Structure formats: structure tokens, C-alpha cells
Amino acid sequence: MAVIFPTFTNVYKKINLPNILEILLILILVTLPLGGFAINSIAVILFFIASILNYLKNKPTLVFSKIFYSFFAIYSLFLLSLVWTDNLQNSLDGLVRFLSYLVLPIAFLLNSNLTFNKEKVVGFFSKSLVFYAIYCVLLGAIKALIHNNFSYLFYHELSGNLSNLNAIYLSVFTSFGISYFLFKNDKSRFDKFGFAFLSFFLVLLSSKIIIITTFLGFLLYFLKKINIRKINVRYLLLIIGFSIVFGFSSSNLKERIQIEFEKTNLQEVLTKKDFGHVYLWTGTGLRIFQIKAFIEILKEQKKGFLGLGLNNSQKYLNDKYEEYNLYPGFLNYNFHNQYIQIFAELGLVGFLLFSTLFYCLLKNASINKDYFFMSFIFLILVVCFTESFLWRQRGMVFFILISLIFSQRKPVI
User: Fold this and answer.
1) pTM for this structure?
2) Does some domain include residue 245?
3) Rounded to an integer, what distance in angstroms lies between the CA atom of residue 359 and that of residue 353?
4) What is d(CA 95, CA 111) in angstroms, rounded to the nearest whole number?
5) What is the pLDDT along the chain (413 residues), one digit of tens a residue?
6) Which residue in 95, 175, 233, 352 could disulfide with 214, CB within 3.0 to 4.6 Å?
């Protein structure tokens, strides 16, 4: 034992923890699009353990940032909601599901002596997305030829090639990758190919709101780069033309947009009392109903200030699905709106805490004039209107990790 302990100590001292930590950060990101959450969760746990080892080895001065305080306050509210929730088990389960809101910020706090290489970590993730996209398109093309059905090249059928991954989530990752290649200063041939192929892939994924958001970022990037007084008219027309083609080149996308406009009956959704199991719902129509249900739940339960409790809104929403006789398959569908999800479960207090977090992130990006980070924050803010993005493993880990990487302070030893 006297021989083993000094040997272990020498090996421990020689371990290059900064490199290992960056590798684990990359592993967390690149496993997000893969099926299941086991590998991703293991990577998060390993990163946390390695962060503890780094702290024990170097004992850096801990740097508490506003971003850390915001995440800590949010998880503290998760914990406090155990006091007023009417289903303790649901909220306890939520505390486990949302541990990333606590574990990842603490891990970065323990690494106060390090500044992770954003270019390296984000670059690996963005490049991995290109290979995921190629895999999905090739497999989708093979299925389309075998079944003589080109729907395999679009939307959930396409993203589903990655273990039934939701097209919206893959669209968010893809948009992030596009922004990385777009904002990168020195672009290699692979970077240009990655930008072009991910742009093509995003159109195939057919997520309307993500495509529009990506185009806005694309236009803002060029407006930032161009001297308005010296702008070439042909160049401007090329940008506009490319944007229009990019947004509407997919017949599948155009068809989906047309259906949303033609088939959504706003008046009917807001006034009908019994929809029946065969009612034709559009994505917009269902989300409007969910907003209506949220308002009714808020009035009936009178818990607008603190909410229903973490992870405890689904029962009330399911009751509304049954009350209005919706198709049973909708049971356990969440609000599909992160802002409403937060308000329902954590009330006005939770909504204000998340608003404070986003304010801090935007302020950080603005001070550093980090347009790539700004585009990421804007992307998350937009997708939260149509998905409970921050309440799902992929969404929360992606958001928390990127936010922390881009908000790092100078290392303190």
C-alpha cells in the first residue's frame, strides 16, 4: 500500500486535465443528436468528476459570475417548488431530470483556472453535424428509392434516421452549425462545404421557424460585413435571391406552410367545446389550444405567482385534453412553448429568473461583440416559442453548455 499510493499520486499529477476536460465537453455535444441519453449523461457525469479533480489538484480561486448565479437561482427555485407542489414525486423526478442546471454550472465554477478553447469545442461539434447530416441524407435517399416515397428525405422521416430524433431539435443543432461556419473568419474548404451542406440539410428538415431564424441571421451577417454606402446592387440582389431560394426551395416546406395557413381555424379552436378524436389539427392550431388551456389552468388553480410545481403541469394539461375530447394520442404532450411551460410550473418568479438569465447572456454577448453567441441566444429564444426546448435533455444540455462556454471569465489561479 505504501508503494501503490505514491505511484497513484505521481500518475494523478501527470494527468493533463485541461485536455481531458475539453475532450469531455466535445463528447457531451457530439452525443446530443444520438439516440438515447445514456452516453450523453455519462459524458456529463465524467466532466463533472474531472472538474472536481481539477479543483482538488489546482485549488483555483472560484470566480462567481452572474451567469452562474442565474443558473443557481433557477435550480434553487426548482428545489423550493417541492414546498408548494401538489405532487411531490413528480417534482422530485424533475429535480433529477434537470440536474444539468446545477451540475454543469458548478463544473465550470470548479474550472475557474481554465478557459476552454471555444473554437476547438464548438468546431468539433459543428463538423460532426456535417457527418450526421450526410448520414441522414444518404439513408433517407436509400429509403426513398426502396419505398418510392420521397417523404423519407424530409422532416421527421429524415431526422429519424438518428434514432428517431425530432426534426426541430436537429434543426436547432444544424442552424447552430451553419452559424459557426458562417461567422468563422478563416474558412477552409471543409468549412465552406459544411456551411453549404448544412444549409441544404436544414431546408430538408423543413422546420419553418428555424429556417426563417437562420435566414435572418444570414442576412444580418452580410449587413454587418457590407458597407452600405458602397454596396453593389447586384450583390444585394444576389443575397436577397439566395435567401428566398434558401427559404422556399423545398416543396415539402411550402406545402407545410400552406397547410398551416389554410387548415388552422383560429375561431373554432378558441370556442369549440368538443373536438372529437378525428378533428384535423395543425401544429399552429394545437399550440393555440395549449395556450388556451394554460390560461384556463392558471385561472382555475390560481397559482400564477409560484406555479404548479416543477414537472407538475402535465396532469392539468392532460385534464384539458380530456375535457375538450381531443384525440387520446395527445395525452402527455407538453405545452410546446417553453415560456408557458416555465410559467405553468414555476410561475411569474420562474419566468423572471429565466428572463434575467437571458438578459445576462445577451449583455455578455453585446459587451464582447460576439455575434455568433448572439445568433445562438436568438435561436434559443425563437425555438422556445414552439418547443419546451429547455425542459428536454438535449435542449437543456445544449443551451447550458454553450452558454457557459461562451460566458467564461478569465482564469484565476
Assistant:
1) 0.89
2) yes
3) 10
4) 24
5) 444 445 444 544 545 677 999 999 999 999 999 877 789 999 999 999 999 999 999 999 998 999 999 999 999 999 999 999 999 999 999 999 999 999 999 999 999 988 999 999 999 999 999 999 999 999 999 999 999 998 899 989 999 999 889 999 999 999 999 999 988 888 899 998 999 899 999 989 988 889 888 888 777 777 666 654 455 555 455 456 555 555 555 555 566 666 666 677 888 888 899 998 888 888 888 999 999 999 999 999 999 999 999 999 999 999 999 999 999 989 999 999 999 999 999 999 999 999 999 999 999 999 988 989 999 999 999 999 999 999 999 999 999 999 999 998 665 44
6) 175
Task: List helix spans (H) across 111-228.
Answer: 118-147, 155-159, 167-183, 189-205, 208-225
Please indicate, yes or no, if residue 137 is contained in any of the structural domains.
yes
Assigned domain for 96 exists: no
Give the long-range contacts of residues 245-251, CB within 8 A, separation 24 or more.
Answer: 246/199, 246/203, 246/211, 246/215, 246/218, 247/211, 247/212, 247/215, 249/203, 250/154, 250/203, 250/204, 250/206
Q: Is residue 247 assigned to a domain?
A: yes
Range of the domain at 214: 126-262
Number of domains in the chain: 1
